Amino acid sequence: MTVKRSIVLGTGSYLPERRLTNEDLAQMVDTSDEWIVQRTGIRARHIAAEGELTSDLAVAAARKALEASGVDAGDIDLIILATATPDNTFPATAVTVQNKLGLTSGFAFDVHAVCSGFVYAVATADAYLRTGMARRALVIGAETFSRILDWEDRTTCVLFGDGAGAVVLEAADGEGTTADRGVLTSHLRSDGSHKDKLYVDGGPSSTGTVGHLRMQGKEVFRHAVSMVTDVVEAAFEATGTDANALDWFIPHQANRRIIDASAKKLGIDPAKVVITLEDHGNTSAASIPLALDRAVRDGRVARGDLVMLEAMGGGFTWGATLLRW
Ligand code: UT7
After folding, report:
1. Rounded to an integer, what distance in angstroms lies between the CA atom of residue 316 and that of residue 146?
2. Whose Cα sits closest to atom 10 in ligand 1?
3. Could you tell me if the CB of 261 is within 6 A of ligand 1?
4. If you classify domain 182-324 with CATH, what class do you get?
5. pTM exceeds 0.85, yes or no
6. Ligand 1, atom nearest to 158 Cα
7. Distance between CA atoms of 16 and 54, rounded to whole angstroms?
8. Between the CA of residue 274 and those of 51, 202, 271, 293, what are the distances in Å?
9. Which residue from 35, 81, 101, 245 puts its CA 20 to 30 A from 169's CA?
C-alpha cells in the first residue's frame, strides 16, 4: 500500500557567538562549575547578542538546512517554528522568518510547546505533508531563553541557553512499512495540571509583561523520566520496533541525568544516545535539532538509520517521533 511519508532532506543549526561558561556564571551567582557539571552535565551555553532575535537564529539555522537539502527557499510552502520566546507577541515569528527568507508564498506559523516544541512541530508538519496541504516544510526550533531568565536565580539561570536548529521535510511515497524512510510515528501528550512546576510569570494577557522563567527543578525531574519513557514506548509499540532496532536516540537536551536515566529505563545502549548539552545547555525547542544536526554532520546519523526524537517540558508537554533517515 502506498502511503505518504515526510522524509528529511537536510538539517542545519546555529549557536550565537557569545559563549558563557560555568566559570563565567560563578562570577555572577553563587554557583560552581563542579555543581553545574555534576547535576546537569552542562559546561557552557550561548547567548544571543543585543539585537539578535529568535528569528535571526531561526533564519541562520534554516539557511544551513536548506543548503544541506539542496532546496531553494522558494521551494518551501510551509514553515513551522517551535518557540516559547517569539520576537513579538504577534505576528508569529515563523512569518518573520518567512519574510527574512524572502518568501511571500506558502504559509507559516509558530508552535508553542516549550521544550517539546520541536517534536510537536515535526508531528504537525508531518500531518500537513501526509494530507497534501503542503509539499515541502521547513521545521525550526529556535529560542532566546536568555531573555526570559532571572539572572539572579541560580536554580534556573545556569540551565538554559540560546540557539536554533532546523530540518527540511518533503512528502514522498512510502510502502507503509517501518522500512520506509521518513517519519514513521509521532506521539504527543500534555497535562496542564503541572503548569506551576515550570512556567513564565508573565504574559500579554496576565501581566502585560514578558516575565521570567520559574521552575521547581526537582518536581520536573521527578516526572521527566516516566513521561519520556511512556511516549517512546508508545512509538515502539505503534511500529513494532524496540530499543535494539534503534540506531540513534536523540533526546531533548535538558539534563544529562534525565537522559541517562531515560535511556537506561528504555534499555537503549548508551553508545546510541546523542548528547550535546555540555556545549549549549537547555535550548528548549532548539535542543533536539541542534543535537540532530551535530550527529548528521559528524556522520553518525546515516541513510536508513532508525532515529528516535523525544522531549518533555513546560505545560507539561511531552512527545516522541520515530523516523527512518
Ligand atoms: O526541559 C525540561 C526543563 N527542565 C529540566 O529538565 C530540569 C529538571 N530538573 C533538573 O535538571 C534538576 O532538578 C536541577 C539541575 C534543576 C537541580 O538538581 P537537583 O539535584 O534536583 O538539585 P536540588 O534542586 O535538589 O538542589 C540541591 C541543592 C540545593 O541546596 P540545599 O537546599 O540542598 O542546601 C540548592 O539550593 O543545590 C542548590 N543549588 C545550587 N547550588 C549551586 C541549586 N542551584 C544551584 C546552583 N549552584 N546553580
Report:
1. 21
2. 217
3. no
4. alpha beta
5. yes
6. 48
7. 10
8. 32, 34, 8, 11
9. 245
Q: In angstroms, what is the span from residue 154 Cα to ligand 1's centroid?
A: 9
What would the grid cell of residue 207 be? 501581566
Question: At CA 66, angle to CA 90 and CA 107, rounded to 5?
Answer: 35
Ranges for all domains in the chain classified under CATH 3.40.47.10: 3-174, 182-324
The amino acid occupying position 175 is E
10-residue block means of pLDDT along the chain (325 residues)? 96 98 98 98 98 98 98 97 98 98 97 98 98 98 98 98 98 97 98 98 98 97 96 98 98 98 98 98 98 98 98 98 98
Q: What is the CATH number of domain 3-174?
A: 3.40.47.10
The confidence score (pLDDT) of residue 1 equals 84
The verdict on the CB of residue 214 being under 6 Å from ligand 1 is no
- 144-147, long-range: CB within 8 Å, 24+ apart, which pairs? 144/48, 144/52, 144/53, 144/54, 144/57, 144/85, 145/84, 145/85, 145/213, 145/282, 145/283, 145/284, 146/47, 146/48, 147/48, 147/85, 147/210
Residue identifier of the C-alpha nearest atom 9 of ligand 1: 217
Report, as residue numbers or ranges, the catalytic residues: 115, 252, 282
Expressed in angstroms and rounded, the spacing between residue 160 Cα and the centre of ligand 1 is 13
Cα of 195 from ligand 1 centre, angstroms: 19
- Ligand 1 contact via 155 beta carbon (within 6 Å): yes
Rounded distance between C-alpha atoms, residue 103 and residue 126, angstroms:
21
